[in-house]
Design a protein that fits this description.
This protein is α/β, with parallel strands linked by helices. It has helices at about 15-25, 35-45, 55-70, 70-85, 95-100, 110-125, 125-150, 170-185, and strands spanning about 5-10, 30, 90, 105-110, 160-165. The protein has a single domain, classed as P-loop containing nucleotide triphosphate hydrolases (Rossmann fold, 3-Layer(aba) Sandwich), CATH 3.40.50. About 55% of the residues lie in helices and about 10% in strands.
């Protein structure tokens, strides 16, 4: 069994790209906490199609709804912990690094501006809108996780195995650093 890997960082920093690349490189299963959360939203009647759903008005509505009802996040996190402990997975999750002790943990650092530029290119969103969305998602997630688990998302990064600053790198460069890190820690 190979250790599980967690990729996290601010919204639109490149987590999915890196996680999928690592899964392919090391023959692991890719899982997204966001996808599991979207399944729960779909059960509630939300139309969750597309990778950029979180950035739509309906996705923002669900984000705000989660702030009032933490059962969705707790259910997702319990499922992710269970899958994480089995090994052989790469998971993108905002919370999992703070909830488990083992595995390889990588934080993708990046400015809101950098994330907004990624979102603009990925989702064809005007830069000003992308910047507003990124800031809103980051702030709301930070409040939610402080309330839910009492940790400060993005502040104490000392327990991460690697912190990669993505601001001056393209996606391939970030992935290569992540691959090297995982190779050294497996």
């Amino acid at each position: 069994m190979i250790k599980s890997i967690i990729i996290t960082g601010p919204p639109a920093v490149g987590k999915t790209t890196v996680a999928k690349g690592l899964a392919k490189e090391f023959g692991l299963t890719y899982l997204s906490g966001g996808d599991i959360l979207k399944e729960l939203a779909k059960e509630l009647g939300f139309q969750t199609q597309g990778d950029d759903w979180w950035d739509t008005p309906e996705g923002m509505k669900f984000l705000n709804q989660r702030a009032d009802n933490s059962k969705f996040d707790i259910k997702v996190d319990e499922k992710l912990k269970e899958l994480f402990m089995k090994g052989n997975v790469v998971i993108t999750s905002y919370t999992l690094p703070w909830l488990v002790d083992d595995g390889i943990k990588i934080w993708l650092a990046g400015s809101h501006k950098n994330s907004a530029n990624r979102m603009k290119a990925r989702d064809n969103v005007p830069l000003e809108d992308a910047l507003e969305i990124v800031k809103h998602r980051y702030d709301e997630n930070k409040k939610l996780y402080k309330k839910l688990y009492n940790f400060d998302f993005g502040e104490n990064l000392s327990f991460f195995d690697k912190i990669i600053d993505t601001d001056e790198l393209d996606a391939n460069q970030v992935l290569e650093i992540a691959k090297k890190t995982v190779s050294e820690l497996l």
